[in-house]
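Appendix B, record 7
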Amino acid sequence: MATRKTSPDDLLGPVTLAVGQEDLLLDRAVQEVVAAARAADADTDVRDLTPDQLQPGALAELTSPSLFAERKVLVVRNAQDLSADTVKDVKAYLDDPIEDISLVLLHAGGAKGKGLLDAARKAGAREVACPKTTKPAERLTFVRQEFRRVGRSATPEACQALVDAIGSDLRELASAVSQLTSDVDGTIDEAVVGRYYTGRAEASSFNVADRAVEGRAAEALEALRWSLSTGVAPVLITSALAQGVRAIGKLSSARGGRPADLARELGMPPWKIDRVRQQMRGWTPDGVSLALRAIAEADAGVKGGGDDPEYALEKAVVAVARAARLRQGGA
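Structure tokens (predicted):
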């Protein structure tokens, strides 16, 4: 068995083990390996697999020699849910991994599937910790690290203000850091965060998002035009739209329960659970996907990818409002 410990810096090692339940960190662990593989070989074949797609015998087929001998990255999500026979296949592969193939195992940690977790560690897998952040201090540390990751400076007060304004969703926190550093030169201070994420601007941008996710296109467009006329940053509006739609997606896929229980599970305040429950009527999974794609296009448009940021926002608001009415047959 390969027992040599792979260096944390060796992104092209034979096996990467990402352990935890924080989706953003798990996705980043995958993206890092894929980016490194494509830097080494632009034609790298990437396969992103769920447990139901990796049936017994499938791994042997995926790792068999290719006629074109291209590099491969095999991503196995929720590895703790693999069947017993597939786990045997993976363990056998760990004994003799193939050169030019990077296997990335995403594992939630814990007791379920622990045998595979132990086997990967024993085989010397490069391990990436992806724990859920449950404490305010952990989220504050994450924000500080995000600013350092993009090579920018932010004051301690600015980091705290950002956590206070955004909450517990790491994707939203990372998005906020990205927006601030792309729009503002120099050190990010508390005044900058306040200008983007608190006070009138926050209320205004979230008013646009609330009307849009409720399917009230005319009111959302009216709120949008008022927001823009009062100087609200367009990126703040796309951020609010994204937060609103993601909240609906998260709550619609969550288990039932009291607002307090769901708040702990989803990282939202209880009052927001009640609001989102009211807003999610009419939404479907397809609607959430359509809306997020429209928002992503608008976000690119307001960041320089288009000639008319206002039109990009209007188009996104209409798309979100329409998506909110898919279940009712709205157009």
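Remarks on this record: Residues 284 and 327 are 6 Å apart (CA to CA). The chain has a mean pLDDT of 86.
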